[in-house]
Amino acid sequence: MTDTDFDVLAIGDAVVDVIAPADEALLAEVGVPKGSMRTIDWEEAQQLYARMGPAQETSGGSAANSMAGIAALGGRAAFIGQIGSDQLGTIFAHDIRAQGVAFDTPALTEDITTGRCLILVTPDAQRTMNTYRGASEHLSVDGVDADQIARATIVYLEAYLWDHAPPRAAMKHAADLAHKAGRPVAFTLSDIACIDRHRPDFRALLESGRVDILFGNEEEARALAGRTDLDEAVAELGEHVDLCVITRGEHGALAAQGGATITVSAVRPRAIVDTTGAGDLFAAGFLASHARGRPLETSLMLGARTAAEVIADYGARPLGKLSHLVDD
Amino acid sequence: MTDTDFDVLAIGDAVVDVIAPADEALLAEVGVPKGSMRTIDWEEAQQLYARMGPAQETSGGSAANSMAGIAALGGRAAFIGQIGSDQLGTIFAHDIRAQGVAFDTPALTEDITTGRCLILVTPDAQRTMNTYRGASEHLSVDGVDADQIARATIVYLEAYLWDHAPPRAAMKHAADLAHKAGRPVAFTLSDIACIDRHRPDFRALLESGRVDILFGNEEEARALAGRTDLDEAVAELGEHVDLCVITRGEHGALAAQGGATITVSAVRPRAIVDTTGAGDLFAAGFLASHARGRPLETSLMLGARTAAEVIADYGARPLGKLSHLVDD
């Protein structure tokens, strides 16, 4: 699988994170459950921003964070996502390219702003995320470069983008292009609220055979399968996909393929500073290794190590190179 | 001096800091001396940004940082600075207002971008600053609210803004308005390179009687006075201003007034994480106390404590409230 230019090409949200400290009282006033992730409209984004404290901006997006992680691990990553022709779009494009990820999706020419995720960090270090998706909702099949898809070993899709028709069509189109080129398609469930909104659609997606590798945490796997027992849920999902990769927080992770299940323990982080991005970076480590044809256990281990690394630093993207985590 | 609405009103650069790690090799290639501060044009800003790693954006500007510090100390601060009608301008305005600083300068209606400071952080934690001033250069007398000036106990001006005629005129206008209202004017020397460019002009400014309180570090004081001995330099500058406040890094600070000099030791920070903003926050502490008519020694002490606080955290603005530092 190495006669390609990219180990992984991802399609996902192109957003800039706007991060500010917040107290519990603000969460209560705004009426957002702590630790939750939700999408908001422009008006609510303006209102919430006006109530937030002095903030700090960094590029984000779940699949984009994963591609940044693959690049930091020394892998070859590409990203497709929709930015606007504005300063936040320039920031997003700069940061992902500066990390070494190929990013060539043209900015929108219309006057539509780049997405942003307003993140409230409470004193207990929990993050409550409020995403105004902006330009990301306007990613369409036109933004999918067929040639680039064919040059990637794995195509990775993000459930967060499922809410709107144009990016949904773009992701299905990308999956079909990948399969035509004989490449596997990976899909990450992103978030339990995503599954609540789109369960029948996600089930149909799996049943259509468009997904080969399914990523999720245990709660998401149970919700999508409609089973309370994790083993049963994984077995059920395994009927529709070749490979299930499930993270279990401090209990480690597992990969299920062809009826067999491989598990690894979690790697203890140097420090627990900020768990944001742990799932994104687990996927980065797993995919970077899996795309190079390594055994599942090796790939799970690299996922666990990479997740531990991002937990030990502030933010959802690696602060430096991570290639020392790769064994070979 | 408390029959006012603001303890301090500052006029200064309105910029967003763009901060990225960098290695020594990048500094050498770009040809910038480590730890230096310089202004760059648009083309150079684009070229340098393209070579910088993934970055993080936070609001900055020396005098703006000082006003943020005063607000964090529980003081009443206002800021006048020029932003553009763009996302960086929105970020700057949001952050300074969210900190509790009054900021009402209308954004430019022309298509001129908000300024930004590209900051390269080398592994030894030194910061090399490259400022594209943008809209800040366009602050004019129109941006100076005469009523607001008259409502401030002290007006604080920043030498960084001296390079261009419109903000220079705005600052002189503000000084005249303050004096007309019977309020003192403070001026910070900002940077040794500023003095190199404008020494005759700064001398003329002092000799014109427009400055009552002069802020600087010892190197700046010596350069402006043209004396190698600090005591002689302070004595010389004291002939033109009522009060000289000089910081001496780890050797503490001094205030000279009417031939008498008061010194304080530096306050040992909890940790030395990032010395950026130490001078800005020293000025914040001093001014917050001095504006309330406290003794010079008390004001120097609060300056030293506030500087120590910002040194112990990453960034040039306080991360939370600092009112616990105030004795009364």
In short:
Chain A has a domain at 6-12 and 61-85 and 136-325: Ribokinase (UDP-N-acetylmuramoyl-L-alanine:D-glutamate ligase, 3-Layer(aba) Sandwich). The first copy, chain A, has 11 helices and 14 strands.
Tags for this model:
5-stranded mixed β-sheet, 38% helix, homodimer, UDP-N-acetylmuramoyl-L-alanine:D-glutamate ligase, 9-stranded mixed β-sheet, 328 residues
Structure description:
2 copies of one chain form a homodimer. Chain A has about 325 residues and is an alpha/beta fold. The first copy, chain A, has a domain at about 5-10 and about 60-85 and about 135-325: 3-Layer(aba) Sandwich (UDP-N-acetylmuramoyl-L-alanine:D-glutamate ligase), CATH 3.40.1190.20. In chain A, about 40% of the residues lie in helices and about 20% in strands. Chain A has 11 helices and 14 strands. Chain A has helices spanning about 25-30, 40-50, 60-70, 85-100, 145-150, 165-180, 190-205, 220-225, 230-240, 280-290, 295-310; strands at about 5-10, 15-20, 35-40, 55-60, 75-80, 100-105, 115-120, 125-130, 150-160, 185-190, 215, 245, 255, 260-265. In chain A, the strands form 2 sheets. In chain A, strands 6-5-1-9-10-11-12-13-14 form a 9-stranded mixed beta sheet, with helices on both faces. In chain A, helix 4 links the parallel strand 5 (about 75-80) and strand 6 (about 100-105). In chain A, helix 7 (about 190-205) packs across helix 8 (about 220-225) and helix 8 (about 220-225) packs across helix 9. Chain A is globular and about 50 Å long. The two termini of chain A are about 15 Å apart. The model of chain A has no long low-confidence stretch (mean pLDDT about 95). The interface of A and B includes residues 57, 59, 86 and 91 of A.
